[in-house]
Amino acid sequence: MEYEIVHNEEKSRFETVVDGLLCIVDYRKHGNVLWVTHTEVPLPLEGRGIAAALTKTLLDYIRNRGLKVYPICPYTKIYIQRHPEYEDLIVENED
Prior knowledge:
Elements: E1 6-8, E2 13-18, E3 21-30, E4 33-40, H1 50-64, E5 68-71, H2 74-82
Parallel strand pairs: 4-5
Antiparallel strand pairs: 1-2, 2-3, 3-4
């Protein structure tokens, strides 16, 4: 399913609203690295691929802008493990 995902730069997150509920992936920008801190999909929406769609959009944004990712969020770490085409974006030791 396709979701209308918006980059809300003011709040440092990618977001979509599904069935009136907000779903997000948060980040903090440090230079050319986005620290992905949190992914949240409300319980009634779980299992629809929303978190995956948000994460893919975020990672494609990072790639298209020549940035890197520091995945603090457990979901983001697992997503990248399952999609090794994004492994080259990872910064291992970010302080």
